[in-house]
Amino acid sequence: MARAGSGRRRVMAQIAMVMNLDKCIGCHTCSVTCKQAWTNRDGMEYVWFNNVETRPGQGYPRRYEDQEKWRGGWELNKRGALKLKNGGRIKSLLEIFSNPELPEIKDYYEPWTYEYRNLTDAPLGDDYPVAEPRSLISGKPMKIEWSSNWDDNLGGATEHGHLDPMVAKVRSQAADKVKFAFEQTFMFYLPRICEHCLNPSCVASCPSGAMYKREEDGIVLVDQDHCRGWRKCVTGCPYKKVYFNHRSGKAEKCTMCYPRVEVGLPTVCSETCVGRLRYLGVILYDPDQVTAAASEPDDTKLYEAQLGVFLDPADPGVREDAERSGISYDWIEAARRSPVHALISRYKVALPLHPEYRTLPMVWYVPPLSPVVDALNETGHDGEDASNLFGAIDTLRIPLEYLAEIFTAGDVGPVRASLEKLAAMRAHMRAINLGDAPDGSVAESVGMTGPEIEEMYRLLAIAKYEERYVIPTAAVADARRLEESAVPDTCSLDHQDGPGMGGDGPFGQDSGGRKRLPLVTVENFHVLRKRQTADEQPSAAEKANAAPEEDR
């Protein structure tokens, strides 16, 4: 592994996320709570920092995965060096005032409300009043034709399913692998947020330098004071998770709920996830290997190349190098206990989203296996038997080729390996739950031991709150300084036409504002955390201590 000039390896840390798609029920709670916390204001009506897509489906915005059209991410030039797919500096300069590769509102959807006064104020008569839809942008009557969730539960799949770019790829390679006849269809849910990539193309695309990746935790943010609204970042992001606020003229994106993370709390989408499918933790990586990994010429090897960037926090040499690089002991310990590191690097069941974009994404996914169990049970076979499960993986309703196009740039091998480990886990734990001795050959067949499978089961199935969200508490030491540095005169969240639009901040009336309201204290965050993780309701004294001084 490459070392810095002094012979020491440079180490950096990143907050990362894993989502277990086997547990997502498509309830959209994560989307609604994120919307309420971060984008519930003028100019952001169509914006969903978190959205849940039904696959197959076109996604949000429509067909965002078609990079031949949208030109997002990176590609290799003739010399094998990385370059933005949307072109270099000269092309960007020529298009800076008129960017042709930019999704229009119809690719997202025109947000609407309903004319409820027609219902409440209609005069008595023989006809039935109707609350007609009205655009939240123009205020005029409109016809609803699309939304962020139009494909939900395969809505219209028989008519629109072939427009999914991944379906088109699979069909071109494997003929009729994907069918939309009722008895042959399949679906799963895919929650998406910003990937907070190691090699973010949105940051490289920004002409004004407003987008940046934080050194301390790897979170990608937009400096609202420096953003000039060129919207090149929207094009540059292949996941289309950067949005343009048409009211403020600024770009905005998922912030990984950094005010919560800084004080040891998980993101809002993680906190409110009904299926408990999200995991947050620290990944240690070698930044000097990022460019080499992203420059791997073979798309199907990009997954393994990114795995090679990550470092083992249990390795004494890595820990020493991390300390020399200025990473605190708490962060190193958090990396050692990280559920994200375990699922990605130790068990290798989590996979990246579209590694072929070469951004090295840091939100990974455990692919779905559930439908195969039900399908086997319906045929009269034991859906939890290892031999049945292993044999059925290649005949899943969800074709391996389709999953591979999403998670491993078309390489079926890592997808099959992940699903086989999940199948082995089910067979192993079924034996234990029935009081039988587990068959050791099942674990060996997937390169694991019985204790490893049981540890993986605990993490994927029954892990407690503190096991799913291992956020370094070292951030708490700087939380008050970070909070108090964001006084209203310098914080851009609440200035005229800024994201806050002069109203309440993201954490209520005390979180910013021109009126110099009291700041949200770190103590409030910790009382909130205790309340969210406790088995009992807080006492009256605890509630009183959590209240702002003017309310006491």
UniProtKB/TrEMBL annotation:
<keyword id="KW-0677">Repeat</keyword>
<keyword id="KW-0004">4Fe-4S</keyword>
<keyword id="KW-0813">Transport</keyword>
<feature type="region of interest" description="Disordered">
    <location>
        <begin position="528"/>
        <end position="552"/>
    </location>
</feature>
<dbReference type="GO" id="GO:0042126">
    <property type="term" value="P:nitrate metabolic process"/>
</dbReference>
<keyword id="KW-0249">Electron transport</keyword>
<dbReference type="Pfam" id="PF13247">
    <property type="entry name" value="Fer4_11"/>
</dbReference>
<dbReference type="GO" id="GO:0008940">
    <property type="term" value="F:nitrate reductase activity"/>
</dbReference>
<feature type="region of interest" description="Disordered">
    <location>
        <begin position="493"/>
        <end position="516"/>
    </location>
</feature>
<dbReference type="GO" id="GO:0009061">
    <property type="term" value="P:anaerobic respiration"/>
</dbReference>
<dbReference type="GO" id="GO:0016020">
    <property type="term" value="C:membrane"/>
</dbReference>
<keyword id="KW-0411">Iron-sulfur</keyword>
<dbReference type="GO" id="GO:0030313">
    <property type="term" value="C:cell envelope"/>
</dbReference>
<protein>
    <submittedName>
        <fullName>Nitrate reductase subunit beta</fullName>
        <ecNumber>1.7.99.4</ecNumber>
    </submittedName>
</protein>
<keyword id="KW-0560">Oxidoreductase</keyword>
<dbReference type="GO" id="GO:0009055">
    <property type="term" value="F:electron transfer activity"/>
</dbReference>
<feature type="domain" description="4Fe-4S ferredoxin-type">
    <location>
        <begin position="218"/>
        <end position="247"/>
    </location>
</feature>
<feature type="domain" description="4Fe-4S ferredoxin-type">
    <location>
        <begin position="185"/>
        <end position="216"/>
    </location>
</feature>
<feature type="domain" description="4Fe-4S ferredoxin-type">
    <location>
        <begin position="15"/>
        <end position="43"/>
    </location>
</feature>
<dbReference type="InterPro" id="IPR029263">
    <property type="entry name" value="Nitr_red_bet_C"/>
</dbReference>
<dbReference type="Pfam" id="PF14711">
    <property type="entry name" value="Nitr_red_bet_C"/>
</dbReference>
<keyword id="KW-0408">Iron</keyword>
<dbReference type="GO" id="GO:0009325">
    <property type="term" value="C:nitrate reductase complex"/>
</dbReference>
<keyword id="KW-0479">Metal-binding</keyword>
<dbReference type="GO" id="GO:0051539">
    <property type="term" value="F:4 iron, 4 sulfur cluster binding"/>
</dbReference>
<dbReference type="InterPro" id="IPR017896">
    <property type="entry name" value="4Fe4S_Fe-S-bd"/>
</dbReference>
<dbReference type="InterPro" id="IPR006547">
    <property type="entry name" value="NO3_Rdtase_bsu"/>
</dbReference>
<dbReference type="GO" id="GO:0046872">
    <property type="term" value="F:metal ion binding"/>
</dbReference>
